[in-house]
Specification:
0% strand; elongated; Helix Hairpins
């Protein structure tokens, strides 16, 4: 990555975090905790989706034909990684505003249902 691209990426993250933080100003702690729990659960779903796509790519093996299906799978995987990375900023901002990582329940049926909507 060139220096210009790296500088641009570094400038985006603090701006996004400030925007998220400004949205959270004045939100009561009880609501911040619920938001933090929800964004952490969403992050788990994004991570699982990216992992599932990675495993599907790996199943094709290194000698697989580079057909349209495989290209689409790679595209979906890269998109999932970008989404996951962006969502990390959201989690960081919300948890930072709360001041601690809340107790988050283990995955339940609702989380598994929601994960299927990411495909």
């Amino acid at each position: 990555m060139s220096g210009c691209q790296s500088d641009r990426h570094q400038a985006v993250a603090p701006s996004a975090r400030r925007s998220i933080s400004s949205l959270l100003d004045g939100v009561p702690e009880s609501e911040l905790e619920q938001l933090a729990i929800e964004v952490i659960l969403q992050n788990r779903r994004h991570l699982q989706h990216a992992q599932d796509l990675f495993e599907r790519l790996e199943a094709h093996g290194p000698d697989a034909d580079d057909n349209g299906e495989l290209q689409q799978l790679r595209h979906n995987y890269h998109l999932a990684l970008i989404t996951l990375n962006g969502h990390h900023e959201v989690v960081s901002a919300v948890v930072g505003a709360l001041g601690h990582v809340p107790d988050v329940p283990a995955d339940d049926a609702d989380d598994n249902t929601a994960a299927s909507t990411l495909n």
